Structure formats: C-alpha cells, structure tokens
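Q: I'm teaching a short session on how sequence maps to structure, and I want students to see two examples side by side rather than one. Could you give me a first protein with its sequence written out and its structure tokens following it? Keep the formatting plain so it prints cleanly on a handout.
A: Of course. Example one:
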Amino acid sequence: MKYDKGLVGGSTVLMILSLLKEGDRYGYDIIKELEERSEKAFQFKEGTLYPVLHRLEAKGWVTSYKAKGDRGKMRKYYRITKGGAEELEEELKMWESFTENVQKVLQGNQGKSLQTIS
C-alpha cells in the first residue's frame, strides 16, 4: 500500500531516531532497514533521507562520523545524541497519544456505514 506523503513525513523523524537508538547506521543501511521492517511499505530514496538526517544533525539530535564499513568502504555513519534520545521519547509520546485518539474516533463509528456517518 502506498501511504500519503504527509503520513510518512510526519513519522520519518520518529522512525529514524528509533533506528539510531539501536546503534549507529549509515544512510543506505537506514533505507534498507526501514524497507525491510515495514515489508517494503516505506521505500525512502536517498534524496528524501539525507535532507532529514542533515536537519537532525543541525538540531543536534544526531552526529555523524566517517568510518570503514564491513567491506572496507568509507561510509558516513549517524549516531543519536542525548538530545536526540530525549526528542525520540517526546516523539513516541506524541505518536502514542495521536494513534490512541485516532483509534477512539474510528471505534466510535464501528458498525456504521460511510453513508450513515455523513
């Protein structure tokens, strides 16, 4: 299923910080991990991911460094900072509250057809 860009965009920071909380990652690894965990529902392009990583870095939520990867190739790795971990906690609280309230609205309409809702 293809998701609305607004839905994905609103949760991108949450997903990236969550992955980085597990450990340092380079950009392509983040893209592949998001794709794999979402069963290909989230397929980010480099042109989408890197501007987000740069914004997170500018806010001090992630830092980056260069190091050799598994195959000896130099890669730019990203690491979550203490501020990024704190932001992740806030993002998680907001996400949980948001999804809980959406569920309340949806459950209030159970059993009603779309025609009777309008």
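Q: Perfect. Now a second example for contrast.
A: Example two:
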Amino acid sequence: MQTALRDYYRAFNQRANWVRNDLLYVNELEKYEQRLIDEWEHAFAAMEDDLSECIGVTEEEKIKEGRRLFSDIEKKDIRIRPKCQEAFVMRGSYHMLANQLKVGWHIDFYDRLKQLLNM
C-alpha cells in the first residue's frame, strides 16, 4: 500500500509539472490514459474469462484474482513517451484512474460501480 501511495503522489506531481510547464502536447494525457484503460480492459476481460470457467467462485478467489490483475498491470511498461522511463508515471496514473472509477481490480467492479451510481 505504501508503494502505491508513493507512486500516486509522484505521478501526480510529475503530471502537474508537465502541465504547469506546458511540456505536453494537446490531449497527450487523455490519450495516454485511454491507452492505459485499453490495456486494463484486455487484462480485465481475460480475468473475467478465467473466472467464468469456474463454478462457485468465492469472494476470496475473486480478491486473489483482482490482486493478480493489479500485479500484472503494474509490471507492464506503458510509457507516455518513449524516453519517459519512470515506471511510477504509469503505476500512479493507474491509481488515478482507479480513484476516478475508470478502472478497477475486483471482478465485480462494474456491478459495484453500478450500485454506487444508482444510490
């Protein structure tokens, strides 16, 4: 958890610095986030496929698979630019997307999100 908070903080500050100093192209952050979401969608769909083959999946198994998805995503190398080698940018950006409810790690993410939005 501590490393996730550190990545979030560092990515937030780095991205704010880029914006503040006008170092990004128009919509570059939005396009980058969409690439991250697209990669997450593929990984999430694979997790859904794996779990749909199982009968009677327990909450513990769902949590375990969500953690595996999170770990797999963190190991990817999706850069905003080829020369931006700081891995915290990608990892922290995923945390930002999760805070915005654009990505999630639990298999029931969409169902839980719908319940929250219907309240």
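Q: What should students look for in example two?
A: Point them to this: Residues 28-52 form the longest helix (25 residues). Also worth mentioning: The mean pLDDT is 94.
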